[in-house]
Design brief:
With about 375 residues, the chain is of the alpha/beta class. The chain folds into 2 domains: about 200 residues, Glycogen Phosphorylase B (Rossmann fold, 3-Layer(aba) Sandwich); about 170 residues, Glycogen Phosphorylase B (Rossmann fold). Helices cover about 40% and strands about 15% of the residues. The protein is built from 15 helices and 13 strands. A 7-stranded parallel sheet has the order 3-2-1-4-5-6-7, sandwiched between helices. Strands 10-9-8-11-12-13 form a 6-stranded parallel sheet, sandwiched between helices. α9 links the parallel β8 and β9. α8 crosses α11 and α9 packs across α13. The longest helix is centred in the C-terminal third of the chain and has 20 residues. It is globular and about 65 Å long.
């Protein structure tokens, strides 16, 4: 196939999170001379907007569901005018999915991919969560009619978002949240420089990367760290990310007298360096589609601990341990400290063997997309 393939990607937000990082990893490593990606966003420009524009891709912003008529008209105009070969929608929930796929189908986009990235409804009050779950269930029964392909970042994400029938289709596919393993390769000089820059000295450095949200479970994380701090007064916790629950966590840190021991670093672009500076990594999430940051942490040779609610397939090395959220913060602390002594080594080959290296995975996905579109158009 010599024709340039054009695919519209949906799902990016203005925040730099796991989903945005996943999309950009593939965007940067798929040949733009063969497949060109444009972006469709709701209410706001995507993270990495300038990079996307500089690379010659288009960005379309449409209003949310509160302006459903305007949204529908803008979507219809985008699909009608561009005649895309593919539509790739990345979702943490299926709620509100139908309208995008119905319009893509109406304007005869041949390849229509729904890509599942989570195993729970993200956040909100009881009423919000109830409505979110209800809409998710409704869409789950509908999506087969308008999508052609069904992708997931993990087996658990597939089960949460798709019916058993879909999971048995030839068009269901697991797509790994691959990373640049060379970028995250452990190097002692980088580790030493990062620790010096952060003034960590000889302190036991524990880290967490994630937005401040219900899903990431910062409340429990702080209580675990508090127990660690009681045993190791030199310990320090680095919190990377932002979110609407950050003020509540800051208040909690203050009430526990942990101000000197907990640092709120906000959104950062030097994640490999920050991971290198850490001794231990914690992710006590209530749910995760996969937990890509754990792949990054393992690639950096970082001893990590995650809740058993995180899919087990994220454990691509023996550096990752799972702990049940039913255990107390004190029990978590004891488990973590019992495994805190270890040597950091190069884990690059382990990441590649587990099929989480972006160069190999992007090349494979590129060929799959080219062949899949050729097959559909050949019918």
């Amino acid at each position: 196939m010599n024709k340039l393939i054009r695919i519209l990607i949906h799902g990016m937000t203005g925040n730099i999170g796991g989903l945005e990082t996943f999309i950009m990893n593939y965007y940067r490593n798929i040949n733009p001379q063969k497949i060109r990606f444009d972006f469709l966003c709701v209410n706001q420009r995507p993270a990495f907007y300038q990079e996307i524009i500089d690379n010659g891709s288009k960005v379309y912003v449409v209003p949310g569901r509160r302006k459903i008529i305007t949204q529908y008209r803008k979507l219809a105009s985008i699909f009608k005018e561009n005649r895309y070969d593919g539509f790739w929608s990345n979702r943490c929930s299926l709620s509100g999915t139908s309208v995008f796929f119905k319009i893509a189908s109406k304007y005869e986009v041949p390849l229509r991919i729904i890509h599942a990235h989570n195993t729970g409804i993200a956040e909100g009050g009881n009423a919000h969560q109830f409505c979110g779950k209800l809409l998710h269930i409704i869409e789950k029964s509908r999506i087969e009619k308008s999508a052609t392909d069904f992708w997931a970042c993990s087996s658990e994400a597939g089960k949460f978002n798709f019916t058993r029938k879909i999971l048995q289709l030839a068009t269901f596919r697991l797509v790994h949240n691959a990373i640049d393993s060379d970028k995250f390769k452990f190097q002692k000089n980088i580790c030493d420089n990062a620790r010096e820059e952060l003034l960590l000295n000889n302190r036991l450095t524990i880290g967490h990367i994630g937005r401040f949200s219900f899903q990431k479970n910062h409340n429990f994380l702080i209580r675990v760290f508090h127990e660690i701090y009681k045993k190791e007064p030199n310990a320090i916790l680095l919190l990377v990310g932002n979110g609407k629950l950050r003020p509540k966590i800051e208040t909690m840190v203050n009430s526990l007298g942990l101000n000197e021991a907990v640092r709120f670093l906000g959104v950062r672009y030097d994640i490999p360096n920050l991971l290198s500076a850490m001794d231990l990594f914690l992710l006590p999430s209530k749910f995760e589609g996969l937990g890509t940051v754990l792949i990054e942490a393992q690639a950096t040779s970082l001893r990590s601990f995650a809740s058993t609610n995180v899919p087990s397939e994220v454990a691509v090395t023996d550096l990752l341990s799972f702990v049940d959220l039913q255990k107390t913060p004190k029990e978590w602390a004891n488990i973590i400290l019992s495994k805190s002594n270890y040597n950091k080594i190069d884990m690059t080959e382990k990441i590649r063997e587990a099929a989480y290296d972006i160069k190999a995975e992007a090349a494979e996905l590129e060929q799959y997309l080219l062949k899949r579109i050729e097959h559909i158009n050949g019918k």
